[in-house]
Amino acid sequence: MTIHIAVDIGGTRMRAASYPIDSLIPKASNRIKTRKKNSTSIERLEQLIESVWPEDDDVSAIGIAVPGPVNTAKGIIEKAPNIPELSGLQVGRIMQDIFNVPTFLGNDANFAALGEWKFGAGRGHHYVVYLTISTGIGSGVIINDQLFTGATGFASELGHTLIDPSGPICSCGVCGHLEALASGTAISKWVTEQILSGAETNIVFDSNSDEPIPGNIIADAAKEGDALAIQVFERAGHFLGMAIADFLHIFNPTIIVLGGGVSQSYSLFSEVLYESMQSHVMAPEFLDNITIELAQLGDDVGLMGALAYAREMTASIPDE
Amino acid sequence: MTIHIAVDIGGTRMRAASYPIDSLIPKASNRIKTRKKNSTSIERLEQLIESVWPEDDDVSAIGIAVPGPVNTAKGIIEKAPNIPELSGLQVGRIMQDIFNVPTFLGNDANFAALGEWKFGAGRGHHYVVYLTISTGIGSGVIINDQLFTGATGFASELGHTLIDPSGPICSCGVCGHLEALASGTAISKWVTEQILSGAETNIVFDSNSDEPIPGNIIADAAKEGDALAIQVFERAGHFLGMAIADFLHIFNPTIIVLGGGVSQSYSLFSEVLYESMQSHVMAPEFLDNITIELAQLGDDVGLMGALAYAREMTASIPDE
User: Fold this and answer.
1) Which residues, other chains included, contact A290 with Cβ-Cβ below 8 Å and sequence gap of 6+?
2) What are B28's strand-pairing partners?
3) Same domain, A96 and A198
4) pTM recorded for the entire structure
5) What average pLDDT does range A6-22 have in this prediction?
6) A283 to B245: CB separation less than 8 angstroms, yes or no
7) Minimum Cα–Cα distance from A72: chain B residue
């Protein structure tokens, strides 16, 4: 039997699983910490893949989702903010040399888009915009049944779309990007600022702590009716609606898929998001047939995407 | 010999030309007014195509560029602001029934992008973003050697990308789109406002006239050193640079092609545009290998695009 191995490398953990060609149920799976004393992330990645390698079956390909932009032209991770030692490395080529099977590298948000399209909320659609809203805002786009990565692999960085040039500074250094206005980090920062400015709230805030207020604390407060907590989610929804109107003008998709931690509080901001999207769209035709859906694959989305990519890439490689 | 007929329908004039399969030099071409008393635009379009129809050769296909969004799913012009009688019509189907050859309809800016990619500034590139900056801002995008039109034909309306929500109102009714900040109309409006607010300038302005100040008057003043005229082009360049940074994040192209009347004054704002693009890009990698070029096909761009599309579509239709 032919097996594909999918790997999802995160800042704190990396996961791998081996899948039979006709199944989404892994034959084997494993999860380890990304970093450990006395071993490199590359060594740990090798061990992880080895741990799910099938004894009796052939492996067709390995797909690896990585947290950072992948230069597809050079086959390297351009930047891995959470795992600096991987930056600039040809991780795919290194694993291919070790295991002697085709190995495909991709950005985790791009692979997640592919996973949601193939196996999740985007099934049956041909044009999909996927946003994962958590610490930052990642994204991936399916165009005409293909993952869109642009000329060198950097396309569809939709979290870094300008929404308001007078807005707060983004993780990338530019002011007013969507990520700086509607990510989990942005939500936490805005609440902190409001509390420090004297806003009333039931959210407990330790002004001596350097830790941001956790998103679930704010979400819980909103569900209990806390006005400030409700306001910050609606604020995020407002900016997301503006951005999604832009994405409709740009990509003319039939579905927007929302994933990531913040999307778990979607009911707190869906109404404002829709209103904002409708009032920012250039013509009502752009709203025809569009649906906004929550992602379905949860924490497995990176693995599922890496699997989808590995399967797709080897479907086009003829057997010897 | 096989002939393709290309048509470009504009608000005031429509043009057509017939091209041998291996040439960009028309066998016949013609230009007439779009509207005339006692005849419909459809009748005039039929007469125009007839006037370039070859006597002895076969026609493989007709390509028609129209000034408005084309719903490719339904095959209709969704809206033709300058030729309302065409709105909602299946112009392609109507001509196909009259002339009995495959007829392909497309948005003029999309076709222009295709023309510049096939025959103009974008040759050799696989990922192209084309902007035509004139009264409004139209655009088209080539992705992986294909014209990108989205799920229903409305994609890549880049003139309606949000740049500053506190900016002026756009032709579509939404505030702060690129078109409202950097089109010819926006340039003229801003200069008018500044003059009415007492700004000093050598630009002659008739406050009794309802006509906007023509762009070439402002461009001439800028070339003669008029501070206000220089400022308005740099202002447009600033916003274009912000938008292009977004387009790099979104499409990761290798070339930006600038066409339309305002781009003829590119030397007045190219420096500011570059600075603005560089300071608004999320990471320097997005600037690798990117070039900004002026469009090369001038007024023929719509015809050339319609020709390219007709040729491309019939290349995939097998001969009977």
Assistant:
1) A248, A253, A254, A255, A256
2) B18
3) no
4) 0.95
5) 95
6) no
7) B252
